[in-house]
């Protein structure tokens, strides 16, 4: 067998579904964690400078954001390891690999581990659907503020009193109702929308939301791949039982 034939045969043993899912998962998690971390820091800066001048008013929110940033570190580390494990599991359970190694035998432990990956990936997929929905909330809030500012700057807008146009973040439950000033109106609101913190945070939240969506898609691909791998292991175990008699 020549070198070319060996290469083709080895490439046939690559679990392409798991490989694509791993690349998509790494990219999605990296975008979500990196952009989300920076966007959260920018959100705190915007609140402190424009909506809540008293530190005690947003102390709880600051603690929650810091906790979320630490959780982001844990998510990034976990999915880096989990993606590698699923990719390795895909390599060792793909049918093409078993054709290359005729002595491959399945065990009860191997089938249990494969089944565990199917269950865990399903749970993570459902959890990330929630994360994807949650990550859309700050995008919605920032979009409302941005659209209000865009309406004020529009040449076709006809406002008799621009100071009557306000954005009150207290109504979203981000800060308490006794926070001062709690809202921004007119030219003050326009100045906030023109700040670099607002521009960066808004677009970073959009990218983080897109990263969460990419991670959901990656987990769906993982679910299909791990389910297929588990089915192959079950079929192989029955084949081994039949050959014993």
From TrEMBL:
GO terms assigned for molecular function: structural constituent of myelin sheath
PROSITE patterns: MYELIN_PLP_1, MYELIN_PLP_2
InterPro entries: Myelin_PLP, Myelin_PLP_CS
GO biological process assignments: axon development; central nervous system myelination
Keyword Transit peptide recorded: no
Pfam family, any one: Myelin_PLP
Bilayer disposition of the protein: Multi-pass membrane protein
GO cellular component entries: myelin sheath; plasma membrane
Subcellular location: Membrane
SMART domains: PLP (SM00002)
Key words, A-Z: Membrane, Transmembrane, Transmembrane helix
Similarity annotation: Belongs to the myelin proteolipid protein family.
Name of protein: Neuronal membrane glycoprotein M6-b
